[in-house]
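Example record

Each entry pairs one chain with its bound ligand, iron/sulfur cluster.
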Amino acid sequence: MNAPTFRPAIAPPLWLLAELTYRCPLHCPFCYNPVDSANDRTELTTEQWFDVMRQARQLGAAQLGFSGGEPLLRDDLEELVGEGRRLGFYTNLITSGIGLTESRLARMKELGLDHIQLSFQDSTRELNDFLSSTKTFDLKARVARLIKQYAYPMVLNVVLHRFNLDHVERIIAMALEMGVEYLELANTQYYGWALVNRDQLMPTREQVAHAESVVNACRARIGNKMRILFVVPDYFEARPKACMNGWGGVFLGIAPDGTALPCHAARTLPGIDFPNVRDTRVKEIWYDSDAFNRYRGDAWMKDPCRTCDDKAKDFGGCRCQAYALTGDAANADPVCAKSARHGDVQAIVMHAQRTQQDAVWQPAQPIVFRKNPQK
Ligand code: SF4
Ligand code: SF4
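Structure tokens for the complex follow.
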């Protein structure tokens, strides 16, 4: 017998992510921005962002993230933060730290910015600077001190992959020294530039297992002093993540040009006309657009998801990953061991391990660094 179909009433969006720009001074090879963002030259104006924020807040959105690219490249970031707070959002700045001067931070503090998430590429200057293709390690360390000085909870994000997984202990030590309260160790998920560099970035199973055991030992040693989140790479799991808590469930992303997206990578899916806030009201986008309704509920599902008892837990996984790996976004995310294509994921992991066995910094295929929009 089929598992019962669920058709939830559409709840309002909770989280508005304003991707202010795809520009960024760094060139991370795991960047989740679209690989063709170099062609994107049109960004919403300050007034257009104000309008999007007002509309989303009216719908019920409570959390507002400013990201990019590097949101500090927008000169109007302070104005946007101020308006977000005035509207009653909980505001979060997601940044590489480049461009966060003391005067800008002081102004944003005054305006009520609630939270800052800073990213590092590694605990060593060499690898941090190599991966970002910039000399920014010392600058980031200064920014981390500033964030503490302005009494923000210190939230640090480090993306993990083959090149830095063995540094996890040093990354944790660095975070402790910085006074980090919350450390997110997020293994690379393969979208955008990370998908281009998948073979080069893919760790070995042994690396992932070892890093996880190091994290567990550190957790036991340091207790509540710092919380550590360790996100295992999808490809090493047997069940998929509940991507975005369900398509069109809580997350509303707005790309720099105003395109509304149910997840960061959704633009990679063919045959969907994603609406734009320049010509469509946010309410209409959220409730009525084909794009946001396409994978809501479970009417779109095929087997094995359609008849699976877990479909209301993980929503069949990630649509973008299903498309990238199977060519059909309505398939089960092949990370799932119940998917007929799960073997493909295991083969990708094995292939990467074979081809990159001795690679340290100089993988068999060269790393492709992220390119910037020509704006
Ligand atoms: S991942 Fe790196 S290149 Fe991409 S937006 Fe973040 S800091 Fe910039
Ligand atoms: S078959 Fe589909 S719904 Fe069931 S666990 Fe796998 S991905 Fe989730």
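Strands lie at 15-19, 63-67, 90-95, 115-120, 155-160, 182-187, 227-231, 251-254, 260-261.
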